[in-house]
Amino acid sequence: SAVLGADLDGRFYFRDGFFCESGFLALLHVVAVLLDADKKLSDLLRPIQRYRVAREIIFRNANRDDAIRQLADAHPDGEMMELSGLRIRYPDWWIHVRPGGGKDVLLVNIETRTRKALDQKLAELKPILGERLSPNSNLGV
After folding, report:
1. Shortest CA distance to 115 belongs to which of 58, 42, 53?
2. N or C terminus: which one in the chain shows less Cβ crowding within 10 Å?
3. H or E stretch including 128?
4. Is the pLDDT of residue 30 over 90?
5. Are 59 and 133 in contact (CB under 8 A)?
6. Residues 108, 56: contact at Cβ < 8 Å?
7. What are phi and psi for residue 91, nearest 5 degrees?
8. Whole-model pTM above 0.85?
9. HSE on the CB side for 139, CA within 13 Å?
10. Where are the beta strands (DSSP E) in 76-132?
11. 44: number of CA atoms within 13 Å, CB side?
12. Strand, helix or coil for residue 115
């Protein structure tokens, strides 16, 4: 019964729209909020920003199931959930790793508090995750 559902690929689903996906409806809601608030979007988001977001990153790893197990073994103190891959959560960062469409592909979403921490985590995890294929290092809001 959630009012809104969304994913990192930019899809938005609205309960009151028969749960259909509508980027246009999401845009209209954002425009309405901006008009009412008379502030920049970045100013409205700043108080609720919890993490810095890296877009989904693609890694090549011939042993992707082993890599997911190694990631879990390397973070035994993290809160773990296995749902469509593995999510490991800490108070100041989290990562979700899942097999991709290709037999040697890992799809990774990771969020941290700062850009510096994001770069450090990616460097730390690279030996487990494998070769980074997507160069996208742009951070979301």
Report:
1. 53
2. N
3. helix 115-129
4. no
5. yes
6. yes
7. -60, -30
8. no
9. 14
10. 79-82, 86-89, 93-99, 105-112, 131-132
11. 12
12. helix
